[in-house]
Design a protein that fits this description.
- InterPro entries: ETF_a/b_N, ETF_b, ETF_beta_N, Rossmann-like_a/b/a_fold.
- Belongs to the ETF beta-subunit/FixA family.
- The protein is of the alpha/beta class and 259 residues long.
- Helix 2 packs across helix 5 and helix 3 crosses helix 4.
- The longest helix is centred in the N-terminal third of the chain and has 17 residues.
- The radius of gyration is 21 Å and the shape is globular.
- The N and C termini lie far apart (49 Å).
């Protein structure tokens, strides 16, 4: 069972985040870049499935040259090889353009399952997995918290409003996972050293047959039209309990449209 896992290098959530005021895109140089934590959980699922059913895991990312570091983390965890899609024209691509490029790359891989994180911590659109499945003509099973495979069929527990649903789908398929899917393993020293020797294939837009005018900020279907920095944190609201603390708290929350 061969599996492709999509990973993304994102700004560290513990660092400072800023927007470019010219186009409201994320300033990725403002903090350290790391592999998105949700993607390590996707790698863990893929490794577990291949340990059970055989096959190998291929890590796939789209990003600048430095995104190779994120691939090396997946390789250190146990992925067999990696694919790095990189091209200057890709900068500023939205979810629509990103899904088109990833789909073009995945068509070159013969895999039984495509695993992604539910949403990235920098974009938060959660749109790419379903878009990818649509482009590839595959079933999409999103927000998965548990998954098993039996022959050519997967069975997943999908988180829905108010609970979860059991879903079955034929393989190949696209699956996006949430934070409950698995605890990612820590790479050991042997894994870290072997990751340096594992193959990383670099692909450009030309290699994929994707026109540059379909990607980047200019080729994207959406654009940010306005933005603002997060307001500074202020002191909390103090309520003195004179017997009406509950009413005061409720009024405060209602005024701020929390309730």
């Amino acid at each position: 069972m061969d599996i492709a896992v999509l990973i993304k290098q994102v700004p560290d959530t513990y660092g400072e985040r800023r927007l470019h005021e010219t186009d409201w895109s994320l300033d990725r140089a403002a903090t350290d870049a790391v592999i998105d934590e949700i993607d390590t959980r996707g790698v863990e699922l893929a490794l577990t499935l291949t340990e059970q059913h055989g096959g190998e895991v291929t890590a796939v990312t789209m990003g600048p040259d430095g995104a190779t570091d994120a691939l090396r983390k997946a390789l250190a965890m146990g992925a067999a090889k990696a694919v790095h899609i990189t091209d200057p024209a890709l900068a500023g691509s939205d979810a629509v353009a990103t899904s088109a490029v990833l789909a073009a790359a995945l068509r070159q891989l013969d895999v039984d399952l495509i695993v992604t994180g539910n949403e990235s911590t920098d974009g938060r659109s959660a749109a790419v997995p379903a878009m990818l499945a649509e482009r590839l003509g595959l079933p999409a099973v999103t927000s998965v918290r548990a998954l098993t495979v039996d022959g050519d069929t997967l069975t997943a527990e999908r988180v829905v409003e108010g609970g979860w649903a059991r879903i079955q789908a034929p393989l190949p398929a696209v699956v996006s996972v949430n934070e409950k899917i698995a605890e990612p393993r820590y790479p050991n020293f042997k894994g870290i050293m072997s990751a340096k020797k594992k193959p990383v294939t670099t692909l450009t837009l030309a290699d994929l047959g994707v026109d540059a005018d379909r990607v980047g900020a200019a080729g994207s279907a959406t654009r940010a039209v306005d933005g603002a920095p997060r307001p500074p944190r202020t002191g909390g609201h103090t309520i003195t309990d004179d017997g009406s603390a509950g009413a005061q708290a409720a009024r405060y929350l209602i005024e701020r449209k929390v309730l």
